[in-house]
Amino acid sequence: MPDTATTIDDLLAPLVAFRRDLHSHPELGFKEHRTSALIADALREIGLEVHTGIGGTGVVGVLRAGSSGRSVGLRADMDALPIQEETGLPHASRNAGVFHGCGHDGHVAMLLGAARHLARTRRFDGTVNFIFQPAEEGLGGAREMVKDGLFARFPCDRVFALHNWPDLPAGTVATRPGPIMAAADKFQITVEGRGAHAAMPHRTPDAILAASDLVGQLNTIVSRRIPPLSSAVLSVTRIEGGHSHNVLPAAVRLTGTVRTFDPAVQDTVEAAVRQVAEGVALASGTTVTVDYDRYYPATLNDAGAAAEALEAAAAVAEHAVQAPEPAFTSEDFAFMLQACRGAYLWLGQGTDGSVPLHHPRYDFNDAVLAQGIRLHAALAERTLRT
What is the pTM of this model? Predict the structure, then answer.
């Protein structure tokens, strides 16, 4: 049997170079044309069956060994963020305003490394589907791949995904049964009066005053409408209106987000947002319209798959732990978990100087590439054990 450390360690130098090349050439969701082409070429070089254009720019590589009809999916997201990078690194983004600030470049490199490793060790019996997904950052690339027949064309008994996690020490893997990432809703509320000179406020319903009242009331919803033992976050993140010091604007817009884990709590919050808006409109004489979008569901791990993932992680990671609580950030892998049983895992990459995800000075920690490859391989080998 080949020595795992040796066969993985000799992949690292080219993978680091590949990862940094992706980092230098980031692409936004559904525009990952260069990225997907490089991935497809790399999979063909390994000898996998390659399928492209799934859900837009998605790529799936298929690897078979043995005679079993069992199968597993391993997913990596590959899009970047609309952020200006500030790392100053030699491999910094060359595309202004686009940046791999969430580590998807590292996710791609780890999954490609796992494909190469499993292709030459083949210590499994069945089919491994390597899923490279576009547009995770708010555009629902996972949903589009599922709608495009991902699991009909590439059936999976289990599907797994890893995400680097700066909040965990490098070498730690964590997951949990049930909710691990929150549902993400976004709202835009428009408050309309007529507009008037600021010296004559009696001539118009005051959209700014009504919007200010609305912000205050929205921030009472969680504390007054949601049971204390349930979890929810509502944040108003932007307020826009007006263009002059002496004019009361005709319209003011509020934008915000809601995060929940329980669909019943999600229903309560949305209903409360609409009720509060109606009340402010009635009290102020303004017209208030609510655009409420539930764009990502909660990421819910199958309990059995989460337990299997922790067992696989314990065999290859320095520390494998059950996460004590979910995160309030969101993840569109939720759509895949609605269609196929599986689990989402956090791969610690933190150091004393770790920078958080989505920060302009973030960079993926190449020191955890080997760990990610081992973890992907262990998930496939355990699910498809001979």
Answer: 0.93
